[in-house]
Write a structure and sequence with these properties.
CATH class of one domain: Mainly Alpha
Largest sheet: 3 strands, antiparallel
Structural class: mainly alpha
Number of helices: 6
CATH architecture of one domain: Orthogonal Bundle
Strand content: 5-15%
Order of helices and strands: HHEHHEEHH
CATH topology of one domain: Arc Repressor Mutant, subunit A
Helix content: 55-70%
Number of strands: 3
Shape: globular
Strand order of the largest sheet: 1-3-2
Distance between the termini: 50 Å
CATH superfamily of one domain: Winged helix-like DNA-binding domain superfamily/Winged helix DNA-binding domain
Radius of gyration: 23 Å
Length: 164
């Protein structure tokens, strides 16, 4: 065999850039750590867990018309299965009520009560303080901007990052 009969030498394969996975792990660990502290704080100070705040916040964002159960299920961050039972507990606490959908005998809207609005507002203000302490103060303003810009598509649109 002659030297020119051998396949050309190739460089060893380059390792794929795995920075995306470090970013993902950072999102998960930062979220888990901050939310664990925030959930405990909310139970101690507001008397209900983050899953309740999630429901109350989605309804607050929806406005006075409320949301159908299936709409609430689509936008809820923490609870998918068991949402009906969760809403049952929040309703029993007087923070939401169910109302019929006009023109739809089977449709049900979930609407914040006045007390639900007040408890949401107080809990959300405290929640922001806890998240600032547990997450925000660990990063610089430049890091806040970079993370915000990078993750914008996940919470302002269809959730599909374009990479552009």
């Amino acid at each position: 065999m002659h030297d020119n009969d051998q396949p050309p030498a190739t460089d060893p394969p380059q390792a794929a850039d795995e920075t995306w996975f470090d970013a993902w792990r950072g999102v998960l660990f930062a979220s888990a750590r901050a939310l664990r502290v925030a959930d405990q704080d909310m139970v101690e100070h507001d008397g209900f867990p983050l899953t309740w705040l999630d429901v109350l916040a989605q309804l607050a964002d929806a406005g006075p018309a409320g949301l159908r159960m299936q709409e609430l299920e689509e936008v809820a961050l923490f609870t998918r299965g068991g949402l009906t039972r969760l809403v049952d507990r929040i309703e029993a606490a007087g923070l939401v009520r169910r109302e019929p959908v006009p023109g739809d005998r089977r449709g049900v809207l979930v609407v914040l009560t006045g007390d639900g609005r007040q408890r949401h507002d107080a809990a959300f203000a405290r929640h922001r303080e806890v998240i600032e302490r547990e997450f925000g103060r660990r990063l610089t303003p430049a890091q806040h901007r970079a993370i915000s810009d990078a993750l914008w598509p996940f919470w302002h649109g269809d959730g599909a990052a374009t990479g552009e």
